[in-house]
Here is the input.
Amino acid sequence: MADVWVVGSVNEDLVVHAERAPGPGETVLGTGLSRGPGGKGANQAVAAARAGARTRIVAAIGADDAGARQRAALEAAGVLGDRLLVVAGQPTGTALITVDGRGENTIVVVPGANATLDAHGVVAALKGLRPGDVVLAQGEIAPAAIEAAAQAASAVGAVTVLNLAPVVPVDLSRARVDVLVVNEHEAALLDPGDRPVAERAGRLAATGGGTVVVTQGAQGALLADAHGAQHLPAYPPDRVADTTGAGDAFCGAMAAALADGLAVADAVRWGMAAGSLAVRAVGAQGADTGRAAIRRVLGDDAAIR
Here is the structure.
């Protein structure tokens, strides 16, 4: 099995639970407050490690207590932290999350040290990348850092997966992305206009030259490449406690499956199974998304690996 290298953000999550999110100028009473590990990069690295991949994270944290807590959480989850950059004078990133009674969330991220991760630091940290490894990046770091990671991966024959969430101005043709993962809202931002999602995904695939995966929540996912588009149905969860981190669990498990040699469509099935598990527990990293749990969700589809 090849390695997964996650290039992205590390945050400390402050999660407030309330029956509903407040409107403008409104105060509502919360029902609970918790602190835990987060950041799209960290969440995806943990998901990849739990799904069985040897996983490293390339990220920046502050020289503070929050940074120490996040390093410890990553390493406890099996993620190699030897490429974490500690930035003096910058706080570790923080995400302020409100989760309502339906499990839906709103998030405000203060990047902190994440904003210092630049192209030079990424390239230096990716030393040792091998052909067949998977490099997974997200939109919570600088576009130049994302493009540098993709170019470094391409140069050695590694697979590049970009989860462009949030959408930032990355030149997809220059970045040489093999698999682009976005949700329907992000896909519309990248390709504005009133058109069916399959057509939009096809246009994005033509721009980047790789495979585009559009996640559609309970409806599953749409894949598009030069050969056309196909829809894969979801694995509905038996309950929804918190949707925070579900997309990250999807991306991490998918990257692990790609590192294990699965085709993109089968890797997406692994990702959807992990996402279904993730929403059943509170917190971005609170659910069991390991290989055995994923196989149970896949059921008959587990025969793919």
About this structure: Residues 250 and 272 are 6 Å apart (CA to CA).
